[in-house]
Amino acid sequence: MEVQGTFPPLSLSAKFEGSFAYLTVRDRLPTILTKVVDSLHRNKENFFKEYGKEGIQAEKRAISFLSKLRNELQTDKPVLLLTDNAEDTEAWNEYMGRQQELMEDGQPVSWFKSPWLYVECYMYRRIQEALYMNPPMDNFDGFKEGKTQSFFESQQAIKCLCTYLQELITNMENMTEMQLRENFLKLLQVSLWGNKCDLSISAGQDNSQRSSPIDSLPDLQRFILVDDSNMVWSTLVAAQGSGSAGKKHARVDIVLDNAGFELVTDLVLADFLVSAGLAKQIRFHGKSIPWFVSDVTKQDFEWTIMQTTAANHKWMSASGVQWKHFIKDGTWSYHDHPFWTMPHEFCDMALDAADLYSTLQGSDLILFKGDLNYRKLTGDRKWEHTVLFDRALRGFQPAPLCSLRTLKADVQVGLQPGQAEKLNSQDPHWMTNAKYAVVQFSSPHRER
Length: 448
Ligand code: F6P
Ligand code: MG
Known about the structure:
Layout: H1 20-42, H2 44-51, H3 53-74, H4 89-102, H5 116-132, H6 144-153, H7 155-171, H8 177-194, H9 217-220, E1 224-227, H10 229-240, E2 251-255, H11 261-275, E3 281-285, H12 298-310, H13 314-328, E4 332-335, H14 349-352, H15 354-360, E5 365-369, H16 370-378, H17 389-392, E6 401-406, H18 419-426, E7 437-442
Parallel strand pairs: 1-7, 2-3, 2-5, 3-4, 5-6
Antiparallel strand pairs: 6-7
Helix pairs in contact: 1-3, 1-5, 2-3, 3-5, 7-11, 7-13, 8-11, 12-13
The chain binds 6-O-phosphono-beta-D-fructofuranose and magnesium ion (MG).
Magnesium ion is lined by residues 198, 200, 257-258, 292, 294-295, 370, 372.
């Protein structure tokens, strides 16, 4: 809860014993580290084949680095400065200085005492440090196998979705604006619920989509706690006339979350936006290093399009071929600014990543996928549930934006009075079990 008079409210942290942050740091993060160690072990033979003895030595050193890291975490040791010399090392170390200033009585920044958002991001960056420090392992993605598996286990749902998309495209010319709107709203919801399928919340356990994503929508509607989809639609429509002489040129940015089924839902939505003439350009934003188990990297993005193209299913491969064209002719592009794998709240972006902020300002609509992006949008703080989304953004308003998120962390704003109390009595885990979702919109041009 937002403590009266404290603005911004306190950060979520494992220092609040029994909280979801506490349980994550205590139980889930060590499990994730163990899985990365297992994955390195499993790939021993491959390292040997590729790099010979040097590969085996590097694998051993990386494993011992990660085991030490797990021990530091479990015994609440002070967090350490990064020692690799990567593009973002200095920024990480500088940010740790800021965290130090926030500590009471000069206590050191540590796993169970500092903000959850910071320490969780820091863990993924330390995994990367283990690889950077042990070449030739620096390109290894310890989460790759899980992401690949999640894509293959969702094949049925992916085929359904691609078939649905290709039918829509065939009938697109005869569609009224009303029908276009209806179909847009459906695919927006498919992309929303695609966010159920991440592998971080399940600590790497299978979490794929098996049923038809379109058929499930009506049953899921009542679990959407805030639904601003109409404003998203109006924003897209308004962007149509904004070019010179009413020429359509709308640009949509999608800040991606997870690979596997969720990424396919995002690609399908992006295809629909372009094919329906609602967007001329789509910019996808992904991660430059493996992140939160299942987040999309450039390699995942390219691999997914390649697999879709190569599928032994007419409509799935037709979709993949189309997506390849979009990339080739520049209609779609992939970007991975280092800020997306920093621990900052997004309200820091204008100062700490001014180039990214100004790029986003050129967008007509930014879609932020998933829970971690929501945590960063709202700063991962103890907000009252009825605080307005705009207020929780604390000035982060590069362009009209919308968060598409299933709830997996105990931060939620923008609810109606009484709504959270009702949910608490019906389902005590409503904020963390990914059963509920929000489509939450904010615009710099919106009347408050
Ligand atoms: O605690 C669950 C968690 O690890 C959160 O830290 C994070 O917000 C979420 O999983 C990842 O979810 P998503 O993939 O939707 O960002
Ligand atoms: Mg994720």
